[in-house]
Amino acid sequence: MKTNTVSGAETEVSSILEEEPPHQSFSQKEEEDPPGRIPSEQGRRFFANVSESNWNNWTWHFRNRITTVGQLSSLIPLTAEEQGKLKQVAQKYPLSITPYYFSLINPFDTEDPIMKQAVPSFQEISMNDIGYEDPLAEQRESVMPGLVHRYPDRVLMVLTDICPMLCRHCTRKREWHNGGWVRSNEEIDAMIGYIRGNKTVRDVVISGGDPLTLSTKRLEKVIAKLRQIDHVEIIRIGSRFPVVLPQRIDDELCEMLSKYGPIWLNTHFNHPREITPEAAKACDRLLRAGVPVNNQSVLLKGINDTVETQLKLCHALLKIKVRPYYLYQCDEVQGTEHLRTPVETGLKILEGMRGHTSGLAVPTFVIDLPDGGGKIPLQPNYVMSFNDDGFLLRNYQGHIFQYRNPKGKSGNGNGHKNGKRKNGSSHQHSEKALQMALPVGA
Question: Which residue of 162, 317, 373, 415 has the smallest Cβ count within 10 Å?
């Protein structure tokens, strides 16, 4: 069974940080080195006494995370009433912010987009009756503890629920109730055995929590076992470390990952201010180790829900050689309703980007359907009308064009060989059915 207690999690964290000195508060003065450079001048004021060697050491940040309202109130202005409300939130939904990520926050701007992702809001509990604890039905679709098998050719391995930062929009917010946990060796071996026995699985996603909270040696044991399975073609790692604690992407980790390719890393930048020199360096290290980096943003109210912000974000990502991959509609997770936007917002953003920048800078806008329905892509509707002869299409400027189908077209045009689906049935759709399938935009 998994190590599902806080003490068990602390044991794992201790093993990760075993060569580090005992816990020290970030406010303590350290004499051995001059103050280190940090990403923002405002943040520097709060961490001016931190040595450069510690600032560049990810384990120092991990040990010195801001995890209490008391610590938070010493860094940002909070009234007694606000502190009381945040303590109520933290009882249900804890907080954890790395010093690095906190240094990106403007503590005097209550609408700061970085702060909104990291600092609890009373709306997390005042609107908690809206949404689902497990909107994607991951628990129902787990074939065993920690292994979700929803799509035929890929599985999701959830190795831990420990993260360097607890993002307020987290899809797996339900796991915060259970304290920190790490899957046991026996549980991981059971997952590996299931994957080995299912030859349709060609793609394994390693997730959490954040799997990079595990020591590099422990993570390597999992990856090495997966690489011994012939039908596993691709390994993907889901991690927000490049964003919230980029110092974790060190030489030891990159050297390890370089031995087991192809490995892809999907990360999670939500705002252009998160793309710092430290984050850029982390992504560059991964790329030089042969690990391509994709970005999966979440559309969040008041954070990145404008065309202008998304353009800045995606252009900045391309400049650090990271591909904008997905823009997710925020899931219907309990405790996140205040951060959700209407679906139409995402469609309007895509419409404002398409044609106004290169296609490489435009992510795919997706909804991960509730009740385990899976991901579906949405885009603005550029199809005005159609018949057997062709389509009437609208371009990004609003101009209308007629596009002709080939003369004497044959077959059902459904993309399957001989007009047959894999189950052998013919796929003949009516015009009405196709119209219903077309995405509708603003």
Answer: 415
Strand (E) positions, 25-175? 142-144, 147-148, 154-158
Which part of the chain is CATH 3.20.20.70? 142-378
Catalytic annotation on 283?
A: no
List Cα–Cα distances, 120 to 23, 72, 336, 363, 429, in angstroms.
24, 10, 10, 28, 48
**Lookup: tokens for 120:** 């609890």
44 is catalytic: no
- Tell me which DSSP letter residue 64 carries: T
Give the confidence band of 437 by pLDDT, cuts at 50, 70, 90: very low
Task: Report the amino acid identity of residue 56.
Answer: N
pTM for the whole thing?
0.85
Catalytic-role residue among 151, 194, 325, 382: 151
Mind giving me the DSSP string for 314-368? HHHHHHTT-EEEEEEEPP-BTT-GGG---HHHHHHHHHHHBTTB-GGG-PEEEEE
The three-class DSSP label of residue 4 is coil
Active site residue 368: yes
* Identified catalytic residue from 65, 85, 116, 150: 150
What span, in angstroms and rounded, lies between the C-alpha atoms of 244 and 145? 27
The letter for the amino acid at 27 is S
As a whole number, the mean pLDDT across the chain is 87
Q: For residue range 329-353, what is the model confidence (pLDDT) as tens digits?
A: 999 999 999 999 999 999 999 999 9
| Lowest-confidence pick of 37-46, 99-108, 268-277, 370-379 | 37-46
The domain defined by 142-378 carries CATH number 3.20.20.70: yes
Known active-site residue 331: yes
Distance CA 236, CA 207 (A): 9
Among this protein's residues, is 167 annotated catalytic? yes
